[in-house]
Structures are given as structure tokens and as C-alpha cells.
Amino acid sequence: MRRLVSTFAIAVVACSPTRAPSPAEPQGDAAPAGPSSGRSPTADTAAETASPSTSTAARFEIRALAVEGFLDAVVALPERTEPLPLVVAAHGAGGDPEWTCRSWAERVRGRRIVLCPRGRAISKRKPWGYYYPDHYALGAEVLAAVSALERELGARLAPGGALYTGFSQGASMGALFVAEHGARFPAVILTEGGTTEWSLQSARKYAESGGKRVLFVCGNSGCQRRAEKSAALLEKAGVAARVEHVPGGGHTDDGAVGERLDATYGWALGEPQ
């Protein structure tokens, strides 16, 4: 059975990554009742090339990964061959894993392997736009995708926990899922979502299972207010928590919000700031 199929190689500009538009999604943290519309597939199949005038670029490949029981996931695999830590990145409703993997691969600059679960297709007639039905489905798909990656590329993965990051629906449902998987995902980044799903009980469960740090990144003040309440619960449970607010950034993980992610994601990993 086909496992990994290389689709294209990308040179990433470390200083100024090029990103496609984010999927349009409704404001707020809750997963929408119906998935939003996706982007044109042309944005997800075109190769991106680093400018020769910029500083050192990180090269990686975007590959399809067969996941038993689910649609193919996507892997951004750096050119470097030494074992690297893992990032699991979940898109919002109407998004797609190709763009999410490219975005995060640019962000981590070849220092991590990025794995992106696809979810279910919004439409059988359109080859883009995906969503996660609920946090149980997302959790099952994430764990199945990680297992598939370990089988196929286990020698490329560094030992230890992974970073889980999600945008909007991927954040809201991810917050519910990771609470019981702190050892596997000791670091979490939730962008424009995942701010109302935390309780003191779930925060303690995350801490007891090995969770260490949660970063909230918000593009609107409502998200910020809710994130600050959740951050207080996490801190009370013994988990380091931080809230980043980009005034006027909007419900997106691109633009100014994406730049804030670029600047702060290292905090969730315990890197010097």
C-alpha cells in the first residue's frame, strides 16, 4: 500500500516567509456549525521559491502520508537528515493541511518535522476544504497519523514529546484532545481558538499527564479575554501559560497574527526569548 508520496520540494525564506491566504472562518473560538469555504487548489499546488538575495533558506518537501482509516495527512520533511522533533499542526474548518504544513515548516525553518492531519472533505465535488467533525475524531486522526509517521520515518524523529498547534477549529477541538495527552504533547499553541474549552479539571489533567506550556495567540479582544481566563486556570494547575494579543489582527493565523506566531512560538518550546 502506498505510504509516502513526494509531491514537491520548497525552498523557504527564513526571514520573510511567503504564505497563502488563510481560510475564511467565523469569528470566535467555537467550531462552526458547518465548515467554511476553502481556498482555490491552485494556491496549494504551486511551488514556492526562496529569493536568492535573502539569508540562508531551509529546504523541505511536502509529502502525502497514508493514514489508515483517514484521508492522507501531509508531512513537511526538512532536507536535514538528523533526527528532528515533531510539530502536529491542525487547520481550521475549511482549511487544508498543505497550506498549514507549509506555513509551519517556514516558521520552524527546518528544525522540526511538521505533520498535518487532513480531516474530512467538505465537498466530494471540490478537491479542497476540510474539517474535523469533533475532538474525538481529531484526536483519533492525530494519533493515527503520528503512528503512521513513526512507522514510515521513525529514524527521522527525535525522541520526546511533540508540539501541538491548532488554528480555530483545530485549536478548539485540540484543546479538548490534548488535555489527556500531555506527555505526547507537552507544548501547545492555540491560535484564535481553544480558549473556552479549559476548566481547572482539564488543566490539572493536562499537567498530570505531562503538559508543560500553553501559548494562546489571539487576533481579537474577545479571544484575548477568554484566553486570559483559561491561562489563569492552567497556571493554577501548574502549567505555564501565555497570552499574545494582536489588536486588529482578526480571525486568522496569517498576517500580523502569523508574525506574532513567528516571534513567540519558541516560548512554548522552552526556547530562550
Question: What do you see in this structure?
Answer:
Strands 1-2-3-5-4-8-9-10-11 form a nine-stranded mixed β-sheet, with helices on both faces. The chain has a two-stranded antiparallel sheet with strand order 6-7. The chain is of the alpha/beta class and 273 residues long. 31% of the residues lie in helices and 21% in strands. It has one domain: Rossmann fold, CATH 3.40.50. Helix 3 crosses helix 4 and helix 5 crosses helix 6. It starts with a strand and ends in a 5-residue tail after the last helix. The chain is built from seven helices and eleven strands.
Main attributes?
single chain; 273 residues; alpha/beta; Rossmann fold; 9-stranded mixed sheet; two-stranded antiparallel ribbon; 11 strands; globular; disordered N terminus
User: Helical residue percent?
Assistant: 25-40%
* Main sheet properties: 9 strands, mixed
Strand segment tally? 11
CATH superfamily: Alpha/Beta hydrolase fold, catalytic domain
Identify the overall geometry.
Answer: globular
Proportion of beta-strand residues: 15-25%
User: Secondary-structure element order, as H and E?
Assistant: EHEEEHEEEHEHEHEHEH
So what's the CATH class? Alpha Beta
Q: What structural category do the secondary elements indicate?
A: alpha/beta
How many domains in all? Answer: 1
- Low-pLDDT windows of residues: 1-56
CATH fold title: Rossmann fold
Total helical segments: 7
**Terminal CA distance:** 44 Å
Strand order of the largest sheet: 1-2-3-5-4-8-9-10-11
How are the elements arranged and paired?
Blueprint: E1 4-12, H1 42-45, E2 58-65, E3 73-78, E4 86-90, H2 97-108, E5 113-116, E6 120-121, E7 130-131, H3 135-153, E8 163-167, H4 169-178, E9 187-191, H5 200-208, E10 213-218, H6 221-236, E11 240-245, H7 255-268
Parallel strand pairs: 4-5, 4-8, 8-9, 9-10, 10-11
Antiparallel strand pairs: 1-2, 2-3, 3-5, 6-7
